[in-house]
Amino acid sequence: DAGITQSPRHKVTETGTPVTLRCHQTENHRYMYWYRQDPGHGLRLIHYSYGVKDTDKGEVSDGYSVSRSKTEDFLLTLESATSSQTSVYFCAISESRDRVNEQYFGPGTRLTVT
Amino acid sequence: AQTVTQSQPEMSVQEAETVTLSCTYDTSESDYYLFWYKQPPSRQMILVIRQEAYKQQNATENRFSVNFQKAAKSFSLKISDSQLGDAAMYFCAYRTASGTYKYIFGTGTRLKVLA
């Protein structure tokens, strides 16, 4: 299994509070991703990173920010959590050493905003 | 923009039988990759099979195989000799071979395996 951890694994927070989710990898992969998973929507990309300090928006980036100061860590921040951000969040990594670049996923974080 | 469509929200199959999950995609690219991921109740995403668009031969992995129809932009997953452990959500995913390394996922198909 790829070495990807997410913390926390579960979190309940109140509307309006800031929340930071952490993704940590030990694979030295260049690319890191944050997705959210909601029933009927599959996985939707929030932000991704293609190197240290290099990030770009995905399809559902509003209300989220990210940072990557080290290869191994990719942080997702909800500046002011809303109930619509209740979801399961997945981190993923990939590399470009070969032509077929599958993604490896973390275990997920279940976030509930009350 | 590329899109991935899974039109079957839920499927059922009898144990030991064969089932096919559908996936279609839309792209103007000629070179790309396609994937099927399995998500069991544990929530862990597991790669099932992958296909490179430049390869005409359909990928196979043990009981799992794909029917890749590039002209029709179709990428279906066939599971043979279905087992109870195959019960899960299955996601189809697309990634272009150039430019960004973004992956696009379908909405998923929930597969139930009946004993």
In short:
The complex is a heterodimer of chains A (114) and B (115). Chain A has strands at residues 4-7, 10-13, 19-25, 31-38, 42-51, 54-57, 64-70, 73-78, 87-94, 104-105, 109-113.
List the helices and strands and how they pair.
The complex is a heterodimer of chains A (114) and B (115).
Chain A: E1 4-7, E2 10-13, E3 19-25, E4 31-38, E5 42-51, E6 54-57, E7 64-70, E8 73-78, E9 87-94, E10 104-105, E11 109-113
Parallel strand pairs in A: 2-11
Antiparallel strand pairs in A: 1-3, 3-8, 4-5, 4-9, 5-6, 7-8, 9-10, 9-11
Chain B: E1 3-5, E2 10-14, E3 19-21, E4 24-26, E5 32-39, E6 46-52, E7 60-61, E8 64-69, E9 74-79, E10 88-96, E11 103-105, E12 109-114
Parallel strand pairs in B: 2-12
Antiparallel strand pairs in B: 1-4, 3-9, 5-6, 5-10, 7-8, 8-9, 10-11, 10-12
User: What is the N-to-C order of secondary-structure elements of chain A (H for helix, E for strand)?
Assistant: EEEEEEEEEEE
Overall spatial form of chain A: globular
- The helix-and-strand class of chain A reads mainly beta
Q: What structural class do you assign from the helix and strand content of chain B?
A: mainly beta
State the order of secondary-structure elements of chain B, H for helix, E for strand.
EEEEEEEEEEEE
Largest sheet of chain A, in brief, is: 7 strands, mixed
pLDDT averaged residue by residue of chain B: 94
Radius of gyration from the alpha-carbon trace of chain B, in angstroms? 14 Å
Number of strands of chain A: 11
Low-confidence stretches of chain A: none
Mean of residue pLDDT values of chain A: 92
User: What is the C-alpha radius of gyration of chain A, as a whole number of Å?
Assistant: 13 Å
Largest interface: pair, residues per side = A-B, 26 and 23 residues
Helix content of chain A: under 10%
The best one-word shape of chain B is globular
Query: Number of helical segments of chain B?
Result: 0
Quaternary organization: heterodimer
Question: What is the count of helical runs of chain A?
Answer: 0
Distance between the termini of chain A: 34 Å
